[in-house]
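Two entries, shown back to back:
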Amino acid sequence: MATASITGAVVTVNVEGATPLRLDMSLQRHSYRHCATSTVAGEINSLLYASVDDATVTAEAVEVGEQVETLLAKAKGSWKALFGKTLTVGSGRTYLVDNSGLNPNGSPNHFFVTGGTGVWSKVSQADYVAARDVRRAEEAITARRGRGDTYDYLDSKKLNEKRAEPGGATNPVVQAVQAARVSIAAASADDAALIATSGRKDLVTLIRSV
């Protein structure tokens, strides 16, 4: 029986049976909800939408693990049949199983989402960085509100006024929005995928406008 859990920004699947395996997926790289803490991006990435919560990710990781167990049983315990295998879970999302070192002779230890409903697939490096920085701006606003700050940062006029205040340039929200503005300018001109992934048309529009 496969089990899965999230620790930090990694979801881990433990596959039991005659050929036990551990498979990890970085949520920094593959979930919008967790990407704010990422410091690197690949040339091509994938992101689960903000609407796909951690409980869903964990449940789907278990589905992946169960399919891996079935494949191992059919292959008489040979994990080589798993490398590069794409598995489809109940939601219709697809996950690829591989080796983190991309070693076809190595034991599978990695999996990641590649497509399906609620997935931004084949994300360029520039688009990924833009998504990450939008998430950082979102979290900066949430943090300020958590401290009792009721300022309307989503109003572009008020945000510009805040930036113009003495010390305003060091405001965490102002800094995060400015960083996201630079990233979005370098990303795709069409914001449809970014808006769908983040669920924050208001914030993406704000960043484009300031």
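entry 2 starts here
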Amino acid sequence: MAIRGFNIEITYKMSSKAATHFARWIAGSNVMRNQRIEESLELIRADKGSDIDQKYAGIKAKPELSFLKEIPPQILRNAASMLFSDINACRSGLRKFPKPKGRNRKRSCVVTKEMFILEPLNEGRALLTFYEKASKKPARMFSIKLDYEPDQLAKQFRISRQGRRFYLSGSYNDGVESATNEELLKGFVAQSFSDDELLSQITGIDRGVKLPIATSDGLRKAYSPETTERLKRLVQKKARYQRILARKKRQNNNKNTRRVESNEQQKLADKIANFDAKTARIRHDFLHQTSKEVVLSAKSIIALEDLKLKNMTKRAKPKRGKHGRGYARNNANAKSSLNRSLLNVALGKLGDFIKYKANDYGKAVVEVSPAGTSQTCHMCGEKNTIRPQQDTLICLNGCGTFHADDNASIVVAQRAVPYIQESTFAQKAKTRKKTAVRKKAVTPPLGSELASIEKSGELETASTDVSLVCSRTQADVRPSSTASLVQRNSLTTMDASVTGVLETR
């Protein structure tokens, strides 16, 4: 049985009352999460990491966090439980230590079965209804129809918030038996194909900035000229309104230049956010259509480059000047432009879409090392090549002139053969050259994560100045072009100023 997921925007499907409650739940969940992170770090500093648990009553009892008593305890319990699971995953080395989330990031809360009910409808649909709180006679707050039967849906849902937009996400069982990616690859290993026979069943894919997709079968996909022009106009409009907003803030003498302090500024900020949303929708649509076309036209095995996008998009490091005085040019502007281009193409999301769609159609996916794929000739396998232009590769050994992206896709397909024949896909082995590294003292996972967080400055200490807390304000929870800032802030009944600051802790 395959477990699927869905994500629905519910911003314009709910009332102001429901938006208020969801905003409270998300804010309370985020405050609980950040508070538990601070307590866990204090225990780690005191060498008491084994005492970390998922209790939250002590945080709820703090006088400065009295508004948490208005949040359903099930929401707070879920937040503490999820954080405890993340810390245990860090102990196991599966992920990094969790970091505090601010108000500007996407936040969410987990809602379990005590806070909702699923009712069956006709034609295999279900009605999902959320309660204000768990009680014997709960009051219905928000309902939405889902295209799945109640038995298919999981026992919990997640409500998330990005700015002033709300989303509902969950998982369901589609009832279809499908093999995992590793089982598909092992099936090819068991058939004992020769290298040439296996290569004939592999489609290599090269991902890039100028040409997002190029396959070894000759398929090339890029944004159409109309879409490219539309994206360019959106970028120009966004930059224009950003300049206008910055000027309004200077004229208004804003105390905090990162926040809006008038209705006029809020309207400009809404327009800027809409431009970003339109750009994201255009990109998302292109990725879905392209990934499906690639998977349908591909062979039984799809080979991708194992791109480390986080490392590829790091900022340029400062370069010391001569004799250690000052700083020399390090082409930081050029690197920032390249990073922006890489992130705009969304190569990572494109790879994720190809992976899950390939498995849906019974095709396997293998990831290989991307080192040197753009400089290696697919005919002779050597790097004795030059690229006079971005899309041209010339082999100096006399193999010929090739399209650079087509050549790279063929190299990716060739590298997938030993990965499958040697079954190294299970261990995610790399073909890069091994280098001897001096061994260093091994630190516990939680201790090393604490050191990295403190070094990066991402851990902020909590302020106990109540006067400072009460001077802050929180953004509205529903988009409204006519309502004033005071009306939008009045949607929440708890002290929004306290919540706004404590979410950043």
